[in-house]
């Protein structure tokens, strides 16, 4: 194992980032492939709407609930090992899904290949271990951009419509290569195996494992902090809603604007692309300005766009009309906010918990992904209750406003702490008594003797020794406020640093007392 303090080679670092991003994009596409395949599956196997919905829900749950476990495993055993296991394991049920003929078989395979969704927390932990804090936000943003895999199957059907008919329904080679919709999971299974080979060959064999040797209780200890659950709520807004809208928007376009499925899938992709590809930008901005500032702006922009989306056409007797073009434009704005916000929210995790990215990031990712499971039913319930599909965005607006309010309350509290730390006036400097000269020291002799006549006290550059000048507000409180002003915080350290001795202030300091500095 490479120690956490060892600076890895830049080439190895970028190998990890590149391969993990490609692998995560592929695994994310496998996780959400039912978003498009459910339509031909339903016709081919005679499934009901309820059966299809439960298949999609099963995949989301399988890729959400165990995320914290996979994050802890990545911390303990290394992200490389976890990725190799996921790629090889998920290839099996993905291929078997292409051979399934009954609903129980489909459900069993879905629960197993749905584990691919847990690759996100493993990738976050893996890259966090390899990148320094100054560029960690950008790195986590790049690997998180693999969310664009959600549009992989959609684009395949849009750009290559013949993919579902290129192979006869009976398949090739005696059915080994299946036809119709079954060809897609078969292709995914082959790509998963090839990706596992690439990860094995081209990533560093000796991995970084920040959680190796640490007891489980210590890895789970950060979860008792309230800020972990606050970050989880933020992630429900920027990621859970993204997953929900990715599957819900095609039906919304068809039902509301009577568009064909192909056009609905294309307009949904216009939302997915910025919500995924802008994630590296969000990471870079978080490195530059701190995650708090970036998240604050994201929530304000999203709130504004969602307010416009929630207003029904002709509301309050106005001429307000939101057609497909205007609706899509507002969804692109929301998608941009989500793409940047996903990176800024996750930048909080290594800032506050640098040694527990797997556990904390796993919990944040799990609760965020669960939002993708809970939100679609809420969207449907509100749409049916009001008779206006767009009012479903009231749910997302409420979550965004609550998150913004919580963040604002934290910012107000931090600003108060900064003013308290930086604005405190120092106590008046006490008058230092002149030290009694010692024999043989400067100024100990009479005025006429060598070294004497210097004012009767030992001095250095005109200042009496024993009196130190401290910067107002210096010390731990000043350093803490300076960190908070950047929008991130370093872990608190209790007591003096290891291997160093506590310093004591001079006998006569500006504070007027001796003690630890």
List the helices and strands and how they pair.
Layout: H1 10-31, H2 34-45, H3 49-62, H4 67-77, H5 79-97, H6 103-113, H7 119-130, H8 133-144, H9 152-159, H10 183-202, H11 216-220, H12 226-257, H13 261-277, H14 279-289, H15 291-310, H16 324-352, H17 357-386, H18 393-422, E1 459-460, E2 463-464, H19 476-485
Antiparallel strand pairs: 1-2
Helix pairs in contact: 1-5, 1-7, 1-8, 1-10, 2-3, 3-6, 4-5, 4-7, 4-17, 5-6, 5-7, 5-10, 7-8, 7-17, 8-14, 8-16, 9-13, 12-13, 12-16, 12-17, 12-18, 13-16, 14-15, 14-16, 15-16, 15-18, 18-19
Write structural notes for this entry.
The chain is mainly α and 517 residues long. The protein folds into 2 domains: 209 residues, MFS general substrate transporter like domains (Growth Hormone, Chain: A), CATH 1.20.1250; 218 residues, Up-down Bundle (Growth Hormone, Chain: A), CATH 1.20.1250. It contains 19 helices and 2 strands. Strands 1-2 form a two-stranded antiparallel sheet. β1 and β2 form a beta hairpin. α5 packs antiparallel against α10 and α12 packs antiparallel against α18. It is globular and about 75 Å long.
Widest sheet: strand ordering? 1-2
Percent in helix = 55-70%
Measured between the Cα atoms of the first and last residue, the distance is 38 Å
CATH topology of the largest domain: Growth Hormone, Chain: A
Fraction of residues in β-strands = under 5%
Number of domains: 2
What is the CATH superfamily classification of the largest domain?
Answer: MFS general substrate transporter like domains
Reported CATH architecture of the largest domain:
Up-down Bundle
The major beta sheet can be summarized as: 2 strands, antiparallel
Could you tell me the mean pLDDT? Answer: 78
From the alpha-carbon coordinates, what is the Rg to the nearest angstrom? 30 Å
- Structural class per helix/strand content? mainly alpha
Q: Regions with pLDDT < 50 over 5+ consecutive residues? A: 1-6, 437-478, 492-517
What is the general shape? globular
Compute the number of helices. Answer: 19
The number of distinct β-strands equals 2
The CATH first-level class of the largest domain comes to: Mainly Alpha
Order of helices and strands: HHHHHHHHHHHHHHHHHHEEH
